[in-house]
Structures are given as structure tokens and as C-alpha cells.
From TrEMBL:
Assigned keywords, A-Z: Pyruvate
Protein name: Pyruvate ferredoxin oxidoreductase alpha subunit
Organism of provenance: Candidatus Hakubella thermalkaliphila
Biological processes annotated in GO: response to oxidative stress
Keyword Phosphoprotein: no
Domain Pyruvate:ferredoxin oxidoreductase core: 38-133
């Protein structure tokens, strides 16, 4: 249906750079669109240095592709989620809390084992520039 309006295929990937995760690195960075260029170049550099890191970027946030995210990330030991928004009173940003909920749902349904640690990072708050140094 959307293809008739936009002229683009309906079968686009919800996740970008999944090939960086398919090799089974023990750690990953997951982000929205704002920091993707900094993170992609940083991940490429770290991989050249021999570190096992990966990158996954969401193409859409709502509706959250929860099953695709869990399937792509469940083999990892650690997933760092970078959010550019803070949610007062929450334990992390919106993508972090939704990803934790997706993993909890998958675990409670017996789809995954509780082996992936998910960590929240906030960046660029107040319009601050996002640089490779803190990554």
C-alpha cells in the first residue's frame, strides 16, 4: 500500500547495518539516526583495531520492531543503547526502555535466554555535539 504512495518498496529493512552484528561480536551499539555517522566510523575503526563491536540502527522507532531487534541482538553479551532523549523518572531513554521491555517479553515467553545485558547511554542532550571520543 505504501509503495503506491511513496514509490518505494514495502519490503524495506527495519534494521540498518545488521551485517555488522551477524558475525557474532560480544558487544553492540544500538542507536537512532542522529549519531549513526559518528558511530559507524567509530565501529569501523574499533574493528580494524581488533575489538569485537557492532552497530545496529533502527530505521523506524514506532511501531518498534521488537521481534526483529530481539532476534538480531539475542546472541550478544552486552548491548549499549544510545538515546538522544531523557525520560524524567525513567531508568533510561525511550529506546532503551522499549528494548528492555522487548527482551523481557521474549524471555517471559521462553523465546530467549537471559544472557544479554542491556546498558543505557544518553548523548547530545541540550544540543551538544556528539563526538567519537566518548564512544
Amino acid at each position: 500500500m505504501c509503495s503506491s504512495i511513496t514509490g518505494q518498496s514495502d519490503d524495506f529493512n527495519l534494521l540498518v547495518y545488521p551485517s555488522l552484528l551477524l558475525q557474532g561480536p560480544p558487544g553492540s551499539l544500538n542507536t537512532g539516526s542522529c549519531g549513526r555517522y559518528v558511530l559507524k566510523s567509530t565501529v569501523d575503526k574499533l574493528r580494524e583495531e581488533g575489538l569485537l563491536v557492532g552497530l545496529l540502527r533502527l530505521r523506524v522507532f514506532r511501531p518498534l520492531p521488537a521481534d526483529e531487534l530481539v532476534n538480531a541482538l539475542q546472541h550478544l553479551k552486552v548491548v549499549g543503547v544510545l538515546d538522544r532523549a531523557a525520560c524524567p523518572g525513567s531508568r533510561g531513554g525511550p529506546l532503551f526502555t522499549d528494548l528492555k521491555a522487548a527482551f523481557y517479553d521474549a524471555f517471559s515467553q521462553g523465546k530467549v535466554k537471559p544472557q544479554t545485558k542491556i546498558v543505557s547511554f544518553l548523548y547530545g542532550l541540550g544540543g551538544r555535539e556528539f563526538r567519537p571520543d566518548p564512544v
